[in-house]
């Protein structure tokens, strides 16, 4: 059986929704609420007008890389894992367990 991953553009949003479904936690809201607990990202949010390569959209911070918007994941613990571990683990499951290198390659196109 040949597994084809979902389109790249939808991976992060699907990962976030999958986590909400599996754990009954609104992960995008948790990310938004935890920017204040990540000193680096908080400094960007507080002075966003000084950073032309960052933008807020629906309360989520994105790093702008050319035409791509990379969701900024705070360096915090949500539940029992870091937010970054959660995104990687959920992405790995979503991408049909393609292995660590392929999973990270896909996710790094959309997460910072």
From TrEMBL:
Which Gene3D superfamilies does the record match to this protein? Answer: 1.10.340.70
**Name recorded for this polypeptide:** Integrase zinc-binding domain-containing protein
Q: What is the lineage of its organism?
A: Eukaryota, Fungi, Dikarya, Basidiomycota, Agaricomycotina
Recorded superkingdom: Eukaryota
